[in-house]
Description:
Layout: E1 2-12, E2 28-33, E3 39-43, H1 56-69, E4 77-79, H2 82-88, E5 104-106, H3 107-115, H4 120-131, H5 134-147, E6 153-154, E7 167-168, H6 170-183, E8 195-198, E9 201-204, H7 209-212, E10 216-224, E11 228-237, E12 240-249, H8 252-269, E13 270-276, E14 283-288, E15 294-298, E16 303-308, E17 313-323, E18 325-326, E19 334-341, E20 347-354, H9 363-376
Parallel strand pairs: 14-18
Antiparallel strand pairs: 1-17, 2-3, 2-12, 4-5, 6-7, 8-9, 10-11, 11-12, 13-16, 14-15, 15-20, 17-19, 19-20
Helix pairs in contact: 1-6, 2-4, 3-4, 4-5
Amino acid sequence: MFSRIFTLTFILLLLASGAQAIETTARNVILMDSETGQYLFVKDHMKKVPPASMSKLMTVYVIFEKLKNGSLSVDDEFTVSENAWRQGGAASGGSTMFLPIKARVKVGDLLKGIIIQSGNDACITVAENIAGSEEKFAEDMNKKAQEIGLENSLIANSTGLPHPDHRMSVEDLAKLSRILIEEFPEYYPLFSETSFIYNNIRQGNRNPLLYSMQYADGLKTGHTEEAGFCLTASAKKGSRRLIAVMTGMSSNKERAEESNKIMSWGFREFDNYTILKGNRKIATIPVWHGQQKNVDLIVPSDIRQTIHRSTAQKIKLTAVYNTPARAPIKKGDKLGSVKIDMGDGEINTIDLVAAQDVEEKGFFGRLAGKFRYIFFGAM
């Protein structure tokens, strides 16, 4: 067997926009394309930082998951404890849903109170009723965070209130946001609601993009003295969705301006392109001892990439595989790879797989094949 390299050239005629590198005053930033998962801009994105109320997204994730698996209903009622009332109520000075002590509150209302009003009392009420205590709820959230791939998060409470051990990276918050959007489409629209009335008190959603960007639809603000003004945001323009997470801004005005700037830049300067079509033949290679002489190599699904539109770019696709392949071969077996050179130093690798089954010849067929190869050099 020997290796063969097969090079394709793919030219993208993109819009010449003369893009400049963007700058932001935010301390920690990530801008992600939701479809491809590619990062368009990062700044200290893996650092564990105080997430403030943005970490309420993890509390929301637990509720969404329980609603989806049927272990919880929006009509179930939770009781407000004195602890939840005292620690998360108006007297605490933080964001509150203004829940009365000992009140019975529907899960659906608590969910809106967390997402729209950022109610600390609602978070603690949920934590205590689901897990028995906020501490136990935090333990459960940490386990869940590991399960879903949040590698730079340590969660100490359900609210995001200051705690020396409560830390998340903006990368983890972006990953979590993508999961919320993709796995819970029936509940995600709650993030775009701009106000909610509870206990005869109307409160507005603090997400500035909901009021300044027509295609913004989530997700969560945050603010503490240590974290600064923060935002986890998402916006969908046409078929494209971007997710941005930003911390460390000095004011609500700066948060609004910087988030709008980086989101607008992402939509303007980048777009998604189909680099390879799924199930389309990339190469055909001979098969040793196969009942068919050849097998086609394909990528199993469309390969989409987020690409900067600054100038016309040349993307180099290189298919690498061993030939001949050895029977038996099952459809979907990995037989090579395609390396995608984006032209900016970034190399992505995609598996090349068999498009069909190839059964192995019987004993006499294999023996005859060996003779043909020895005497005639043919397979």
